[in-house]
Amino acid sequence: MMETNNDMEDGEVESDLSCYRVLSSKTLADVVEALIDLPPGRLTDLRAAAVNNENFARVAVKHKLHVHLRHGSSALEAQIREFLKEVRDELLKPGFNSFGLGDCKAPKVLGDIFESIDGAIFLDSGRNTTVVWRVFQPLLQPMVTPETLPMHPVRELQERCQQQTEGLEYKATFEMAILPRKEVYIDGLQIGSAQNPQK
């Protein structure tokens, strides 16, 4: 029997939901004791760092799952190669975390590989999250913990400005460039600017 687009879309939704459900609950359950003393917002940061397409794409690359991807797109192949290079470059910088703000966004298909395998195991195991976690927990090592989770640089800037009652302002400029340039101001003084396909 041939699968229709609706069947495949339903399968993708199911695998996305199971992946999020399993990894969100299990990741957080494993560190719940450490989370008791976390200030508000860090729990959200922890979940966002552990359960996102960027992280799943890195897991897929780390375990070389991307080599099994079959496609006929030279553009996708170029995106994957560029992402692999960025991941390798990041590994050379101890303590570096791109927070998804690097020059190269992870191709969604890489995270989808991870989510699809998660969804298949979830369904094959009769929707048993314990089985899924037993398979995926070793793949996710090293896991983000409250101790290893750095603060997102944008959030860190916002919190510092709030504590020191400084006025923080972002301005987007649209010149001839394809991407808008974001400028950052503190108390009216420009302190930086950046251009990135992500906000």
TrEMBL record:
One Pfam family cited in the UniProt record for this chain: Ribonuclease_3
Species of the source: Coptis chinensis
SUPFAM superfamilies: RNase III domain-like
Name of the featured protein: RNase III domain-containing protein
Domain of life: Eukaryota
GO CC terms in record: cytoplasm; nucleus
Gene3D superfamilies assigned: Ribonuclease III domain
UniProt-listed CDD domains: RIBOc
Keywords: Hydrolase
Domain RNase III span(s) in chain numbering: 22-126
GO molecular function, one term: RNA binding
GO BP term, pick one: siRNA processing
